[in-house]
Specification:
Largest sheet: none
Order of helices and strands: HHH
Shape: globular
Structural class: mainly alpha
Length: about 100
């Protein structure tokens, strides 16, 4: 989905894996598919998995775990940006 990766979106892609990215693609291929709906639905799923569906207080996470979760969310944001603002997507990425 992402055409021009920066370091964080590439890391997010690696953490998400092809299965999750394909799932986001399928969401957008539905007949009513709205550009960017796949990445936003995947982002909602990530937030549910790590916060909303976790009973009780979130445990302390080490830096690597935080980077993994944030890279996944960042990937979703960049994929949404490219799907909805193709003309601006490469201008807004962070340089390595």
């Amino acid at each position: 989905m992402i055409q021009d990766h920066d370091r964080w979106s590439k890391m997010g892609e690696e953490y998400l894996g092809e299965h999750n990215i394909d799932w986001a693609r399928r969401i957008e291929s539905f007949p009513h598919g709205v550009p960017g709906s796949g990445p936003l639905t995947l982002m909602k799923s990530i937030i549910n998995d790590y916060w909303a569906d976790v009973p009780g207080a979130t445990q302390d996470w080490d830096a690597m775990h935080v980077d993994m979760v944030m890279a996944k969310i960042y990937w979703c944001w960049v994929a949404w940006l490219e799907a909805t603002h193709e003309d601006l997507a490469t201008e807004w990425t962070i340089e390595d």
